[in-house]
Amino acid sequence: MANTILVGIDASTESAAAADWALAEAKSLKWSVMFVHAVSPVDVADPEVEARYFRAAFSEAERTFGPLLEDAESRGVPAESRVVAGRAKDVLIRLSSRAGLVVVGRRHRTGYASRFGSVSAALAAHSSCWTAVIPERWKRDQPALDGVRAPGTARFFGHVIVGAEEGPEAANLLAVAAELAQRHGAPLTAVTVSPDGAARDGAAWLPELLHRINEKHPQLQCASVTLTGNPAGEVTEAASGARLLVIGSRGLSGLPGIVRGSVSQAVLESTSSPVLVIPSRPLKPERE
Questions:
Q1: Is the pTM for the entire model greater than 0.85?
Q2: Domain region containing 184
Q3: Which of 139, 168, 187 is the last residue of a domain?
Q4: Could you give the C-alpha distances from 137 to 41, 82, 172, 176, 259, in angstroms and in order?
Q5: pLDDT tens, 159-196?
Q6: Within-domain flag for 13
Q7: What is the pLDDT of residues 11-47, one digit of tens each?
Q8: What family classification does the UniProt entry report for this protein (predicted)?
């Protein structure tokens, strides 16, 4: 299943956006898609009531899959569906060990609910493969890449953006982002952030890495920019109107994992563009 995109599905609009993005990516990669719906357990004492609940939930999930499977067939993308009992984040994390990419939608939430228990944050921290998080309004708000920009839109319109910091993960993040940009015919921009304004002239470690990218992808338009300010805010602003934002699971914060208050989670919760999270830790081998 390594060449499979796992898509978390429910009846929500953000789930529909995730499915649309995943099918487009699968077609580009010539991969297959597996739609997965998780049915959460219920705390009831009566086994008969519990059984009726699961039968109804499984039946409703199967109906949700119908239009998605038809869409996949119309695009020529091999697809299947599964209904699994369990909490969504637990189910998707477990199945991610057998996929190349897991895709979920994200609705705009604020406060306590946005910081704790988020499926997207849990996957970004613990998935065994890459994770793509698609904002609920992405399809509606994303401008056409060949369209005319309205006044005030971001300068990285249509780019693949990679949020990078100096460290052992930087080369891999840039390589992944470059492959994606090359495949989609988009410019690549590496964004670093200097909170104190000390690196206004750019990150000294980036030119050598970009040189390697240019050698491998001589036709790719790539550049770097160092911004000054709050890392999460600056990266989110830079990614506005971007085709894709690529970050590591350590994000730009220097902190391991997705943790409370980290830059990675702040970006995941606020960006208006799709975000691809590349694990900084070694990936687990596929289980049979």
A1: no
A2: 143-278
A3: 139
A4: 29, 26, 29, 25, 25
A5: 999 988 888 788 899 999 999 999 999 999 999 887 66
A6: yes
A7: 777 888 899 999 999 999 999 999 999 988 877 777 7
A8: Belongs to the universal stress protein A family.
